[in-house]
């Protein structure tokens, strides 16, 4: 299903905004007028790019209507009370030109058991999309392509309230209805500009690789603040945690940097998936765009692969030690793979830090293979390590520590330093490579499928050896070594 529905209060009236989404507050200074003109000029250019023209809208309507009719005929043959609706950004008029997602939801009555719903849903999906294939979210659905449009046919329960949901997709029709009532043409246009802005800065998408702003969240924010520019002005001054409650539910507290209470379900934070980095990223670029509007902020970065010569220049300049664990990527969808990679990255970096190999920065990449990439400030340690015991006056613990090491021929001490016993003992690993190639690697917290892949086979790359990663991960390494907000 499209990101629009992976996750608004009424805004200002359309008449209170100019074409750039700017609140009209009366006459200002010449400099503010010039700044506003520059802002509006850039926004107008963006709108020319992202607004679908009438021909594109008509083609989408024709395909969506045909598929909805076909799905409804198939659904009502199976269940008299079934119905079909179109949801998502193409139903709400907030889709960006060139985005070609049509989401068709088949709603079944609540008394249907889940197994039957899934069976009926797949049958309707295959009838609607004869060349489609099955995919799985919380339950299976059918995905296919019709005349260049990406189409999902998804079964769900028809409910009176989003608080009664049986699965996450049951909320989506409520989201669509809520926003249809609140989005006028100007707000919808501002939503498209906002989505393109978020794409340009790399913060759009609620998938667990990006952990950014979903389409639904973006629409709610634009509605709540009353346009693109008011949203940027507000975000520039956010002091997280920021809480928005469009329908004043006032029932739940969440521990997230951005909290947007779902208007249709007060127990849910629509922004829960947003990472602190992406909330901060929006703030950074909101300030930058307001200060100096430019098209570069709405153009997604497409970095060129980093060549070997430049990678070596970075390594020479930084004088750190890169290490990488490379293995066959588990056969998982991204929303399953990336949380496991993140868990494994956290576990491995903690394991390195605990053994004195100070982690400077780290990242994880995946394609055909997967890589946990760690840059170390310290890669080699002495053969001995200091081990502090308890203060001598803590008799029971102190005597236990002393007796444990008193007859150890490989330990120095115990001796007294200050008021406590200390021993210097042999270090288990003197290099990061030793640790990463040992069985102790499997003592750290790893994602289950990552651990299985590592148990099968993996390689450790240190220093200049990481240049072999460039063929597969040249773009990721450029992004790593040339970071931006």
TrEMBL record:
<feature type="binding site">
    <location>
        <position position="89"/>
    </location>
    <ligand>
        <name>ATP</name>
    </ligand>
</feature>
<keyword id="KW-0460">Magnesium</keyword>
<feature type="binding site">
    <location>
        <position position="195"/>
    </location>
    <ligand>
        <name>CTP</name>
    </ligand>
</feature>
<comment type="subunit">
    <text>Homodimer.</text>
</comment>
<dbReference type="GO" id="GO:0004810">
    <property type="term" value="F:CCA tRNA nucleotidyltransferase activity"/>
</dbReference>
<feature type="binding site">
    <location>
        <position position="152"/>
    </location>
    <ligand>
        <name>Mg(2+)</name>
    </ligand>
</feature>
<dbReference type="GO" id="GO:0042245">
    <property type="term" value="P:RNA repair"/>
</dbReference>
<feature type="binding site">
    <location>
        <position position="175"/>
    </location>
    <ligand>
        <name>ATP</name>
    </ligand>
</feature>
<dbReference type="InterPro" id="IPR002934">
    <property type="entry name" value="Polymerase_NTP_transf_dom"/>
</dbReference>
<feature type="binding site">
    <location>
        <position position="92"/>
    </location>
    <ligand>
        <name>ATP</name>
    </ligand>
</feature>
<feature type="binding site">
    <location>
        <position position="175"/>
    </location>
    <ligand>
        <name>CTP</name>
    </ligand>
</feature>
<keyword id="KW-0479">Metal-binding</keyword>
<dbReference type="InterPro" id="IPR048833">
    <property type="entry name" value="CAA_C"/>
</dbReference>
<comment type="similarity">
    <text>Belongs to the tRNA nucleotidyltransferase/poly(A) polymerase family. Archaeal CCA-adding enzyme subfamily.</text>
</comment>
<dbReference type="Pfam" id="PF21133">
    <property type="entry name" value="CAA_C"/>
</dbReference>
<feature type="binding site">
    <location>
        <position position="101"/>
    </location>
    <ligand>
        <name>Mg(2+)</name>
    </ligand>
</feature>
<feature type="binding site">
    <location>
        <position position="204"/>
    </location>
    <ligand>
        <name>CTP</name>
    </ligand>
</feature>
<keyword id="KW-0694">RNA-binding</keyword>
<dbReference type="GO" id="GO:0001680">
    <property type="term" value="P:tRNA 3'-terminal CCA addition"/>
</dbReference>
<dbReference type="Pfam" id="PF01909">
    <property type="entry name" value="NTP_transf_2"/>
</dbReference>
<dbReference type="GO" id="GO:0160016">
    <property type="term" value="F:CCACCA tRNA nucleotidyltransferase activity"/>
</dbReference>
<dbReference type="InterPro" id="IPR015329">
    <property type="entry name" value="tRNA_NucTransf2"/>
</dbReference>
<feature type="binding site">
    <location>
        <position position="195"/>
    </location>
    <ligand>
        <name>ATP</name>
    </ligand>
</feature>
<feature type="binding site">
    <location>
        <position position="89"/>
    </location>
    <ligand>
        <name>CTP</name>
    </ligand>
</feature>
<feature type="binding site">
    <location>
        <position position="92"/>
    </location>
    <ligand>
        <name>CTP</name>
    </ligand>
</feature>
<dbReference type="InterPro" id="IPR043519">
    <property type="entry name" value="NT_sf"/>
</dbReference>
<dbReference type="InterPro" id="IPR011068">
    <property type="entry name" value="NuclTrfase_I-like_C"/>
</dbReference>
<keyword id="KW-0692">RNA repair</keyword>
<comment type="function">
    <text>Catalyzes the addition and repair of the essential 3'-terminal CCA sequence in tRNAs without using a nucleic acid template. Adds these three nucleotides in the order of C, C, and A to the tRNA nucleotide-73, using CTP and ATP as substrates and producing inorganic pyrophosphate. tRNA 3'-terminal CCA addition is required both for tRNA processing and repair. Also involved in tRNA surveillance by mediating tandem CCA addition to generate a CCACCA at the 3' terminus of unstable tRNAs. While stable tRNAs receive only 3'-terminal CCA, unstable tRNAs are marked with CCACCA and rapidly degraded.</text>
</comment>
<dbReference type="Pfam" id="PF09249">
    <property type="entry name" value="tRNA_NucTransf2"/>
</dbReference>
<feature type="domain" description="tRNA nucleotidyltransferase substrate binding">
    <location>
        <begin position="190"/>
        <end position="297"/>
    </location>
</feature>
<feature type="region of interest" description="Disordered">
    <location>
        <begin position="1"/>
        <end position="57"/>
    </location>
</feature>
<feature type="binding site">
    <location>
        <position position="103"/>
    </location>
    <ligand>
        <name>Mg(2+)</name>
    </ligand>
</feature>
<dbReference type="GO" id="GO:0000049">
    <property type="term" value="F:tRNA binding"/>
</dbReference>
<feature type="binding site">
    <location>
        <position position="204"/>
    </location>
    <ligand>
        <name>ATP</name>
    </ligand>
</feature>
<feature type="domain" description="CCA-adding enzyme C-terminal">
    <location>
        <begin position="318"/>
        <end position="463"/>
    </location>
</feature>
<dbReference type="GO" id="GO:0000287">
    <property type="term" value="F:magnesium ion binding"/>
</dbReference>
<keyword id="KW-0819">tRNA processing</keyword>
<dbReference type="InterPro" id="IPR008229">
    <property type="entry name" value="CCA-adding_arc"/>
</dbReference>
<dbReference type="InterPro" id="IPR042090">
    <property type="entry name" value="CCA_tRNA_nucleotrans_2"/>
</dbReference>
<feature type="domain" description="Polymerase nucleotidyl transferase">
    <location>
        <begin position="74"/>
        <end position="175"/>
    </location>
</feature>
<protein>
    <recommendedName>
        <fullName>CCA-adding enzyme</fullName>
        <ecNumber>2.7.7.72</ecNumber>
    </recommendedName>
</protein>
């Amino acid at each position: 299903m499209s990101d629009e529905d992976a996750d608004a209060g009424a805004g200002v009236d359309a008449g209170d905004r100019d074409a750039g989404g700017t609140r009209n507050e009366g006459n200002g200074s010449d400099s503010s007028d010039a700044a506003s003109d520059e802002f509006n000029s850039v926004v107008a250019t963006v709108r020319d790019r992202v607004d679908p023209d009438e021909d594109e809208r008509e083609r989408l309507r024709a395909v969506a209507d045909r598929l909805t009719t076909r799905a409804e005929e198939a659904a009502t043959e199976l269940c008299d009370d079934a119905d079909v609706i179109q949801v998502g950004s193409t139903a709400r008029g907030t889709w960006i030109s060139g985005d070609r997602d049509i989401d068709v939801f088949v709603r079944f009555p609540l008394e249907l058991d889940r197994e039957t719903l899934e069976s009926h849903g797949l049958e309707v999906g295959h009838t609607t999309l004869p060349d489609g294939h099955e995919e799985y979210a919380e339950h299976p659905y059918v995905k296919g392509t019709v005349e260049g449009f990406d189409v999902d046919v998804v079964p769900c329960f028809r409910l009176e309230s989003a608080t009664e949901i049986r699965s996450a997709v049951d909320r989506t029709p409520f989201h669509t209805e809520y926003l249809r009532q609140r989005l006028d043409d100007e707000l919808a246009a501002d939503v498209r500009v906002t989505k393109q802005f978020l794409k340009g800065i790399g913060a759009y998408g609620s998938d667990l690789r990006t952990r950014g702003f979903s389409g639904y969240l973006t629409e709610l924010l634009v509605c709540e603040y009353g346009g693109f520019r008011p949203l940027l002005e507000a975000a520039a001054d956010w002091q997280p945690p920021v809480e928005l409650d469009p329908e004043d539910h006032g029932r739940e507290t969440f521990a997230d940097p951005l909290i947007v209470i779902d208007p249709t379900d007060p127990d849910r934070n629509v922004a829960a998936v947003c990472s602190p980095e992406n909330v901060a990223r929006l703030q950074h670029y909101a300030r930058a765009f307001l200060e100096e509007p430019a098209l570069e902020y709405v153009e997604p970065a497409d970095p060129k692969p980093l060549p070997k010569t430049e990678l070596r220049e970075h390594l020479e300049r930084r004088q750190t030690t890169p290490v990488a664990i490379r293995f066959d990527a588990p056969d998982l969808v991204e929303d399953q793979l990336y949380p496991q990679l993140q868990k494994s990255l956290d576990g491995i970096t903690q394991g390195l830090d605990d053994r004195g190999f100070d982690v400077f920065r780290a990242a994880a990449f995946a394609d055909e293979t997967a890589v946990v990439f760690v840059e170390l400030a310290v890669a080699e340690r002495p053969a001995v390590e200091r081990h502090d015991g308890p203060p001598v006056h803590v008799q029971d613990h102190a005597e236990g520590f002393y007796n444990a090491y008193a007859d150890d021929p490989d330990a120095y001490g115990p001796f007294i330093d200050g008021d406590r016993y200390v021993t210097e003992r042999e270090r288990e690993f003197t290099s990061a490579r030793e640790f990463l190639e040992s069985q102790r690697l499997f003592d750290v917290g790893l994602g289950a499928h990552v651990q299985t892949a590592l148990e099968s086979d993996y390689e450790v790359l240190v220093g200049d050896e990481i240049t072999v990663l460039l063929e597969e991960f040249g773009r990721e390494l450029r992004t790593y070594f040339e970071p931006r907000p």
